Amino acid sequence: MEEHRMRRQDQQRPKQIITVLGGTGQQGGGVVNALLDRGEFAVRVATRNPTGDAARALAARGVELVKADLLEPKGVGAALEGAYGAFVVTNFWDPQVGLREGELATAAVKAARAAGVEHLIWSTLPDADKLTNGRLKVIHFTGKARVDAAVEAAGFARHTFVQAPFYFQSFLGALAPQALPHGGRGWTVPMDPGARVIHAGDVTDVGRAVAAAFSARDKLANGSYLAVCGGVYSWIDFVSTLNGLGHDFQVVQVRPAGYDGFPLGREIRETFQYFEACTYFGPDREKNIAAANALVPGGYTRFADWARLNMKRLAHGGALGCAGDRGVPGIGRPSLNVSAGTEQHFGGLHRRRRGVPGLR
User: Fold this and answer.
1) Which of 174, 164, 125 has its CA nearest to residue 351?
2) Phi/psi class of residue 52: alpha, beta or left (left: φ > 0; alpha: ψ in -120 to 50)?
3) Confidence grade of residue 41 (pLDDT, cut at 50, 70, 90)
4) What average pLDDT score do residues 295-309 get?
5) Which of 98, 41, 33 is nearest to 70 (CA)?
6) Domain 2-351 carries which CATH code?
7) Domain extents in the chain
């Protein structure tokens, strides 16, 4: 009887709020979905455009919307006020963010602390510059990593770091197969295509790990790093899996210098060189992957399963089409002997540097 009464009181008590900064993007959207699926917390999303289609779709699902923009840190506080937890993700590939990523993320962290947030989860990546002794900058990794210290120093009751993988969804965007210089379709890469060093996964799985981390509370060690992935792959693994579904793709290794003549080319080239030198998740990968796996006992989506649902060979035998423009930039034909088509591929990516999954 007493247990029943207490359970009813819990049901009547208002749910604690989790604010998601970036909740209309791919990674933040996955977090929103996972939180709604769990039903433990009320969800609030900070968005630049609360009247846009994506925001209205969230509102229809019971999500509270607050107009706020990471580019204007002073306004972020309102979205965080009264929230128990906050998830913060930034987008280096947004032209308005870029090299300001660390500054803007740090401002959001400070705003969360000032608003009284108890548990902050920051979407980060390894410090490639430090791990390679300055040889490879990989700004979109290193810039995120250097915000970690601000999170630790802020004094939250709880803080957690989540590391998102190389997104499978990239293969539906700008990582879609391209025409190769000597015929056929596939990818040219500035690394050993047989090196099994790419920790990859379904972007939606990041949300599952984040939602589980909020629910775990003190059962999860404070300051944990959660590296989310469905497996570790080589380029040859990706190609073999896709060809097993009826495709006829290839992967060709090219000279790294071939990347540097294109917009963002050096960043992309260094990214793949970093993978080969350190793996995607770096030297702490095993511990951090294990921590993420422990939170989601059912595990995360493997590439073969994802590809079977999302990248089947078209029934009429046509080539797989691009499903959007939110993929990894610059994996077209970045060799020194390039075509106009390649230049268009790189140029278009340079103009629309929004939400680049895989290269986060």
Assistant:
1) 174
2) beta
3) very high
4) 96
5) 98
6) 3.40.50.720
7) 2-351
